[in-house]
Amino acid sequence: GHFIDDSRLAGRPAEIFVGKMFKMEVWETLLASMRIGEVAEFWCDAVHTGLYPIVSKGMRLIAQGKDPLEGQRHMCGMGNMFNYHSTGFPELDELMRTPQPLIFIMELLQVGDPMSYQRESWMMEKDEKLQEVPILHMQGNTLVRQRQFRKAASKYKEAILLLKTVQSREMPGDIDYINLGRMIIPLELNYCQCMLELEEYYEVIEHTTELLEKHKDCVKGYYKRAKAHAAVWNEKEARRDFNMVAHLDITLASLVSRELKTLSECMKEKYWEEKEKYWNMLEKKENKNEDKEREDDDEEEDDEVDQQNEDWESLEKVRLPLTLNLSQCMLELKQYQQVVELNNKLLKKQKGNHFSMKMRV
Question: Domains in the chain and their CATH numbers?
């Protein structure tokens, strides 16, 4: 046999609420026979393990911080199994097709008072989830004021997941579905602002892009994505998004103008730095080759020619991308004469190189 699941790998113990018609009723019976701290092994016939694949899928989703009912319709567990044919996990699908006896090794860590337990989001009813959202929103705002952006982002994300879970139960296009989508927008924007503060720019780009696919007129979404693109030197994308902000809200035109000016200055500074870097690298390579040629003067003629050829080929392989990168920087800095001179030299050695010809043109 082999292990199917190990809840210890999830970093937190599994929890069962006795008497809540849990899908694996046999587990309630088994656990009720155990003492706290006891580890026991139970062999269960296939008649008691038929729904284990669905239970396992739910536990795996919970471990990932997702809703264990994700993707299910309003019907019993067995109905969902037949409706979808697959759990999304090959080993569980095989177990669904051919139910087998299973051995469960359980350790009873503690028995808690149900009245003292703080329920997780996936256990809440729709109204409870909706009531929890503004609380999480306010907690996030408080943490932002304290500049605890990581914790604030966690609160916003939790609220977003609650709303998305409720929304997934609604019919797309219905008024409730649309309203829930609108409620998600400020939370997503707050989350993205936290990520900007934490300099996690690609996370911002991913979330704002997803948001803008659904809400194409979200000005703040374009603005935050533009800031993220600018931070990772995506100049074209940043300009496009900043211009979209001004297009959607003319009152922000002066702000956009300042942002575009700042972007141009930052990009120019970057190109200068890269120009210096590539120029220095080229000089080092050429000096190294000259030094090597001097050393080779003391060697036999045949060996000298072979070594020079090898060094020259090695240098040329490095020179080409460096020269092209340097040329691109100079183009951005509008130093056109230097671009022509650089690529004239390159084309003498690499005739027909279309990248170099394009730069020169």
Answer: 7-116 (3.10.50.40), 125-262 (1.25.40.10)
